[in-house]
C-alpha cells in the first residue's frame, strides 16, 4: 500500500522508534533495521506519475522516454497489526559461492511491543493506543547445517486467550494485561515431548517465532 500522506506524517509511528536503542543481536534490532527509512536516489529513483504529468501533460501523451523519476523516501511499516505475529529469521548468509548457516543466538522476549514499527494510522489499533503487545506461544528451532539438520519446537500450553477471541469475533479487544499469557512450555522433538522452563525457551536458537496479540 503506497502512502500519499503529508511527508511530515507519512513516516510517523505509533510509538517513538528513536527511543528504542535496540540491543544488538535481538529481535528488536532486526525489526528496527527492517523498518528503517531509506532514501531512493540515482538508479533507485521513483517513477512519479504526478511529476511526469506536470512536465509532459496528459497521461496518453507520455512516452517512456519522458517519464520523470524523482528522489524519494521509502519505509516499511505495519499498517494492520496481525492477530498472530509470525517472525521468520534469516538463518543463512552468502559465503563466497556457497550458503552458510547462521548459528548466532538472537534474543527475543516473552512479550513484544510492535508499536514502534506500526504506522501512526494502524487500522486495527484503537485511537490513543501507543502499545501493540504480543505474547510468545511458539518457537521453531533448527539444529544442524545447510545440508542436514533437525527441526524441533517449543510450544506453550495455555488457557484460551479471551482477548484474542474478542479480536477475532468482534474486531476489538478490552485487553489491559501486559504480562505474557500464563501456561506451561513443552519441548517437542519428533515423538518426544517434555516440559521445559521459559529460560530454556528464550535461550533457543529461534528460526520461527509465533506471538499472539494481547493489546
From TrEMBL:
Coiled coil: none annotated. Pfam families: UCH (PF00443). GO terms for biological process: protein deubiquitination. CDD domains: Peptidase_C19K. InterPro entries: Papain-like_cys_pep_sf, Peptidase_C19, Peptidase_C19_UCH, USP, USP_CS. One of its GO terms (cellular component) is cytosol. Keywords: Hydrolase. One of its GO terms (molecular function) is cysteine-type deubiquitinase activity. It comes from the Eukaryota. Residues 1-214 form the USP domain. The keyword Ligase does not apply. Gene3D superfamilies: Cysteine proteinases. PANTHER family: UBIQUITIN CARBOXYL-TERMINAL HYDROLASE. This is UBP16 hydrolase. It comes from Chloropsis cyanopogon. The gene is Usp16.
Amino acid at each position: 500500500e503506497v502512502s500519499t500522506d503529508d511527508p511530515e506524517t507519512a513516516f510517523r509511528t505509533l510509538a517513538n522508534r528513536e527511543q528504542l536503542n535496540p540491543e544488538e543481536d535481538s529481535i528488536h534490532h532486526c525489526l528496527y533495521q527492517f523498518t528503517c527509512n531509506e532514501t531512493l536516489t540515482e538508479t533507485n529513483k521513483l517513477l512519479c506519475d504526478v511529476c511526469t504529468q506536470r512536465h509532459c501533460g496528459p497521461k496518453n501523451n507520455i512516452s517512456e522516454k519522458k517519464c520523470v523519476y524523482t528522489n524519494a523516501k521509502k519505509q516499511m511499516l505495519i499498517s494492520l497489526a496481525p492477530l498472530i505475529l509470525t517472525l521468520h529469521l534469516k538463518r543463512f548468509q552468502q559465503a563466497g559461492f556457497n550458503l552458510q548457516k547462521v548459528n548466532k543466538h538472537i534474543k527475543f522476549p516473552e512479550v513484544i511491543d510492535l508499536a514502534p514499527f506500526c504506522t501512526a494510522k494502524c487500522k486495527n489499533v484503537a485511537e490513543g493506543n501507543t502499545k501493540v503487545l504480543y505474547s510468545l506461544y511458539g518457537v521453531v528451532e533448527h539444529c544442524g547445517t545447510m545440508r542436514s539438520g533437525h527441526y524441533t519446537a517449543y510450544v506453550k500450553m495455555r488457557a484460551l486467550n479471551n482477548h484474542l477471541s474478542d479480536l477475532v469475533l468482534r474486531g476489538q479487544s478490552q485487553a489491559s494485561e501486559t504480562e505474557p499469557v500464563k501456561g506451561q512450555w513443552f519441548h517437542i522433538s519428533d515423538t518426544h515431548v517434555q516440559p521445559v522452563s521459559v529460560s530454556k525457551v528464550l535461550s533457543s536458537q529461534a528460526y520461527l517465532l509465533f506471538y499472539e496479540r494481547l493489546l
